[in-house]
Amino acid sequence: MHNHTPRISKSQYLRGLQCPKSLWYYRHRPDLAPETPPGRQALFDAGHEVGVLAQQYFKTGIEITEDYLATDKAICSTQKAVADGHIHIFEATAAAPDGAFSKIDILKKVGKSDAWDLVEVKMSTGVKDYHVDDMALQRHAFTGAGYNIRKSILMHINNQYVRSGDLDLLALFTLADCTEQVTSRLADVDGHVARLLDVIRQQKEPDVAPGDHCFSPFECDYTGHCWPTHPPRSVYDLFPTGPKLNALLARDITLISEIPDDFRMTNRQQVLVQACKTGQVQLDPAKIQKFLLSLKYPLYFLDYETINNAVPLFDRTRPYQQVPFQFSLHVQNEKNGPVNHVEFLSTEKTDPRPAFIEKLIAHCGTKGSVIVYNKAFEKRINDELGRDFPQFKPALNRISTRMVDLLVPFRSRHLYHPDMNGSASLKSVLPAFVPHMRYDTLEISDGGAAAQLYLSCLKDALPAEEQQKVFDNLRVYCGQDTLAEVKLLEVMYGLV
Ligand code: SF4
What we know:
By secondary structure, this protein is of the alpha/beta class. It is built from 19 helices and 14 strands.
C-alpha cells in the first residue's frame, strides 16, 4: 500500500455508510468541522475507563501505542507483536489491499493455532445493528491483511451486574459472539469500500438531500451546514416533517402565526398556535384550579441530582445506575407562607446514598405534597434506593406516593407561555414565566454538566480548590431547580 493510494478508516467507513456527503465533508472540508460538542470529552473519558478495564480482563497483553495517524507504523508494530508470540494484542491495526484499515481493541490468539479472534469493546449494554457494520469492516481489514480470523466478538457492558467488593471484570463484561451476523454482512464490504473511496476521490461533494438519515444511527456533525435555518416560531417547530408541514408549505405558510384557524390540529398544537398568534399566555383555568386543589400543605419542593457511571463505583450499584448524590428541598407550610431551604450534597468519596436517604427521610416529613418536576425520575430513584437499601423501602415509598408532578400542567399545555417554544422542560418554562430566573447565567446549567463535574470530584480529577467551586456551583444549581418550582406555583396561583 503506497501513501498516495486513498485509504479509509473504520470510522470514516461508518460515516460514509450513514451519508457519503458527511464522509466527503470530513475529508475535504475541515473548515466545516463543528466545535467539539459539550460532553464529548466526558464520553471519551468514560470510554477510556471502560477500555482500560477491558484490557485488564485479558490480564496480559501488549498495546500498539502509535498515534491513529501513524497507520503504517501501527501495522508494522502489530506484525512484530504477532511475530514475537504475543497472544493478546491491544489496539492491533491492519489494512486490506483495497485501502480499508482498522484498529481492533483486542486481537486474541486462538489457542496454539494460527487463528485469531477480533474483540471489539463498546460501552453499550447490548449489540446494536451499526456494531455489525463496525465489526464487518474490522474483519475485512484483518482478513485482507492475511490474518486468519475465527470469531468477531463484541465485548459490551452487562447492566445486570451488581457490584460487591472489588470489580468483577468477568461479570461486568458480556462477550457476544457476532461472527454469524458479521460474516453475513461481509460480502457487502468490498462494494461499500470501493464506492466510498470513489466519494473521497471526487472533487465535488455528493448530492445528498438532508433527511431522517442525518440522525441515525448518530446525529451527523454537519446538520448545522446542511439543514436550512428557519426563522423563530416557524411551522417547522410544530411539524418538523410530514403531510401537515407539506400542506402548509404548499399554501406558502411558513410562520406559526400564519396558520389559518380552520387548519386541523390537536388541542396541544392549537394552544401553541394561539400563544404564537396572540403573544399571550394560554390558560385552562379549570384544569389549573384542579391541580392546585390537589396540593396538600405543607409543600415539599424536591429535586435530585444523580451520576450514572458505566462502571459501578459502589457496592450495590449496577452499570449506568442513576446514583443520587444531592437533593434540594424547599418547604412551605402554608399558601403564600415563607419557604425554608434544606439541601444535601455528599462531599465524601464514598457511596452518597446512605446519607442521602437518611437526610431525605428526616426532612420530608410525613404528610403534605412532595412537588417534583418530572415525577418518573425521582420516583424511579426512590424505587431503586428501596431495592438496594430495603430497610428504608417503606419510608421511601411513602415519599413517592406523596409526589405531585409540576411538569404535568405545562406538558399538557394547560398553562403555556409563547416563550416556552414548544418545550415543557424547567429550563424553558422558568425563564418564560419568571424572566429574572435563568439557567444560562449559572456556572452549572444542566443535569448532565452537574453529573460530569461531580464525577470528576469523586475520581479526584480536579484540584481541591476547584472541587470546592464545583460543590458551591452544584448547590446553586440544584437550589435553583426547587426555587423554580416554588416560583412557578406562585405564578399558577396568580393566574386563577
Ligand atoms: S447533515 Fe445529513 S445530508 Fe448533511 S452530511 Fe450530514 S447526514 Fe449528510
